[in-house]
Structure formats: C-alpha cells, structure tokens
Amino acid sequence: MISPYTGWTREHWAGLADRLLLSARRHASPSHARISFPGEPGGYGPDVDALEGFARTFLAAGFRVAGEGGRDPLNLMEWYALGIAAGTDPHHPDRWVRLDEHGQAKVEAASLALVLHLTRPWLWDRLSSTVREQVVDYLAPAVGSGYPPINWVWFQIVVEQFLASVGGPYEQEDIDAGLALSESFERADGWYADGSERAYDHYAGWALHFYPPLWREMAGLPPDPRHLARLERFLDDAVHLVGADGSPLIQGRSLAYRFAAATPFWVGARAGVGSPGLLRRAASGIVRHFAGHGAPGEDGLLTLGWHGPYRAIAQDYSGPGSPYWAAKGLYGLALPADHPVWTAVEEPLPVERGDFTRVVRAPGWLVSGTRADGVVRVVNHGTDHSYPGSDLADAPLYARLGYSTATFPLLAGDPLDQSVVVLDEEGRASHRTGFTAGALDALPSGTVVGSSRWRAHWGEQGPGPDHGYSRAGAEMRHGPEVEVVSLVRGAWEVRLARVDGRARGLRVGGWPAPEGGPATRVIGGPGLSASGTRVIGEAGLSASGVEVAGTPLGERTLVPWCATPGEVRPGRWYAAALLLGDGGEPPAIDGGKITWPDGTIDDFTTIPVLPE
Q1: What is the separation of C-alpha 534 from the centre of its chain, rounded to a whole number of angstroms?
Q2: Exposed, middle or buried, 137 (CB in 10 Å: 0-12/13-18/19+)?
C-alpha cells in the first residue's frame, strides 16, 4: 500500500483541486474575471475580494495543468484565459484593481505571474498579442514600487522576473534589492523570519521557502545550494511540527489558509531535498485533516475559519476569497504522477515513530511530541512578532507560552491560556511581548529547557488594522520583572516563575483544550495553592470581564490555572506542572530535582539557562 498512514494518493489530491475549482466557477462573473465568494466583504472591499477569488484559485488551476503536462479535461486554461482578458482590460466593467490602486493587488499579481510561468505553453503562449500587452501593462506598476519589507518582497521579485521573461519592463535593481532583503531574513537552522521582528509562523514555509527556487527557475538559474541546504534543514524541523492527525501547528496569523501549511513539503519534493515518502505523509496528513473536518464544506467552498466557518480567525486583510491561498498547499500537483514524491511509500511522521523532544532555535521553541496521543506541543520562549523591549500588548497568535496541534489560543481577553501573568489590583493579567529570550538547551537526559524574561505591563492593543500581531500606540502601565524557565519532557512541562518585585498575585495558565479533547491540567507547587479551571464558551468571561468566544475546535474550551492565594514573594521561584494529552502521573518536584513519569531525574539547579 503506497499510503499506509493517510490513504491519500495523487488521485485524492486531484479530486480535491477539481472540486474546489468547479465550485468556484459558480461564483464567477460572466467574464470569469471576478470570483466573488459568499460572505461578508473583507476589510479591503469586494473588488479586492473578487480579485483574490480569481488569483488564488488560479494557483490551483495552474498546478493542476502543469503537473499533467498540459492535459486539461476541465478546460481550466481557456476558462481562466477569458478572465485574464477581461481583468486586465482597463475598460472592461470587470477589470481588476490595479497594483497602483491597492496594495493587495501586489500580492495577487505574484500568483498571476507564477502560474503564467508554470503554464506558459498552454496559456501565455496562446493569448492574443493584445491580451499579453494588457497583462504586461497590468503588472508593470510593480516596477520601482514600494513593498513592505516582509515576505512581500518576493511578490515584486516574482512579478518583475516574469515581466523580464516576456520582454516587459523590469528593474534589475528592484530584484537585487529584494533578494538582499530576503537574505536578511535568514535565521538559524534554515528558518526565515517574516521581516526584522521575531516573526515566526507558517509564512516561513508557504512564502519564504516557496518563492526562492521558483524565482531561480523563472530566471533560468540553477538551484542555489544555500537555499537547498536551508530548505532541507527547515523541513527537518517542520515535519516535527505536524500532529499524527495531520493538524499543523496552530500558531501565527492567516490560519484561514489552512492546508497552505503543506506547501514547504512540496517545495522540498520539487527541489529534491528530504525523503519523498515523509514529505508526502506530512502534506497528505495536513490536507486530509482539513478535508475530514469540513474544509471545504459540502458546497465545495473554503470559508474564513479553521475547520468550519469561524469569522473571529480572520485578520483585517481577510475576505471571502482569502482562504484560497490554501491552493499553495496543492503545489504537489505541479509534479507529474511519476515523480518520486507520488510513487514513494509514505513514511511515519516523527510523532508516529515515538516520543521526542526538540529544540528549534530560530523561533525559540521547545518541541515535544508524544506517540500515545499524536500531539505536538511547542513551548515558546522566542516568538512574539515584535522586538525585545517593545512593550506591547500580547497578540494571542504569537506571544503565548505554548502552542500545539490540538489546542487553539483564545483570541480575545487578557492573557489566560498558556501564560505566566502578574495580576494587578483589579485582577487584570499582564502582558509579555517584548521579552528577552534566554538560552535554549537539550539536557543529556533528553529534557529540553528554555527561558525568557520581561517587565510585566498592562494595556490594550494600539489603534490601526488588526493583522494578527501586536499594534503599537497604546499607553502601558508597568510592573515588576518576570522570569520564566521551562523544562519539557513528554506531555508535561515544569514551569518555574519568579517575580522581582511586589505584586498582588501570580497566575500560571495552562493549555486551552477543547471540551472532550486531550486532557489539560495545571498542578501548582508550593505557593501556588489557588487553582481552578476556566470554562470558556459563548458566555465565558476573561479576567477583565470581556466576553470571550470559544475556539474553532469547540464551543467550550477548558483552561486550567493555578495562582498564589495572595501577594507574591519577590525573588521566590514558584513551580507548576502543565499537561496536555496522555502524560500519566505528574512529575514530582522535590527541591531542585524533577522526577518525570518515565523515571528520569533532572536537577534544574544546574541547567545552563537557569538565571543567576
């Protein structure tokens, strides 16, 4: 059996792509230029939404036809060619928003250019000279234009490289500057940050590793050994971040893109790095996870949500067409049926082979996977989508102390889940964004350990659009320094915390598990005798009294916690044990030693990351 773990073959992938594409046609304008999916318009308006609907489904169409060597039983190329002719015609009533009219068009233009490259013999070469001139004119405002210094630099590079390949206008200086900026995003072990901040999320794989080899292909250049080495090393971490049920790590913005998380595994396959059977196991596991949980829905559409619709997951830039960036996860269809990634036998994911712990240095993550429950957990001491000392309110998708493949962070209210907070006189929880990251290490026992330190602060997000990360501009109140050390083994974390100053209270929040999901527990040590479990649902309230909705994983979410019953003793180390999943008996903490459920003993007074 070629797919013993997922049961998915190339035929399943092709069937999913065809279903998405045929369902999208029902929402197209007569000219095919605009695909306007049902739902509330996004923050950029219906014109941008309709362009996204076209450009992002065009990705799936392009991958489908490229992998078939031009065979096109659904007539995809002719169908999309009509839309291109109308969309790029400045006088057509369905014409697209231009790159010099709205920044989001710069994003969608890259998808257009990419697919026009991949399908050149069957689409571009068959367009009339008039339409080709219109396409060049539509893409030309990319030249010399400003792009945000994040993954967007690749949108300019790809568009200008395509223009260069068809005799259009381009500036080599733009391409060179973008390449240099992208190189500045490189971090340890093959990772990229999405800009200069500590911004680590799925964009590392579905954007920053996706475009470099494709750009070189467009430019007629051989693969860059540096990119291949980074990609291979990154993928070694990435396969450890997929749960046995196929769920990717639930962390970071743009989660409505869902199985776009499979993209880097196909990039590795196309580049010839990594084990084909393992790469397909990861990718098929991810897409099957969503397909099995109602994405796409019975109508064949992708909605703003995780499994089913869940509008709260959207950022301000998200509209009804946005989820179709999931099409990037179908990139494997651009590889022919006889490619090794499609013919190799699936291999088990790391979490299916056995329990593991792992240090992922660039984002500052301690990773733990357990075979018994198939859950992968990340304890976060390095990512907040900000800078050290930035002093901002926490963004739930970045600044929590933990993320997993089985839990969804609470998206509203003061920090509660996966947190260590100082409570002010009103009982409000402090924030940690802007923390100083400590060292990460793997002990000889296999236990992994890390730390971070920050000044507790209270306040709200600043004004401006919500793009999923912290917004500056709000005034903050400041409190004492907080320091946290985590030791992680199996399903358990032992979390040590101390406060360098007086405080009304200290609270440790656990994993936000959906009701009926994996077990979640917090066991407080000496001094953390107050405890409970917050049940978050439609009527749930945060500590500040703000209503908090459930999560996409369930209407009710359980968040255990422990706290000091009164004031914090400055300088004292408090300890708590946190569980997610099947962990057996809790670790025993005696003085400076931890005895884990498997009998391993660690002396945390001697670990290198423990502050003086």
Answers
A1: 27
A2: middle
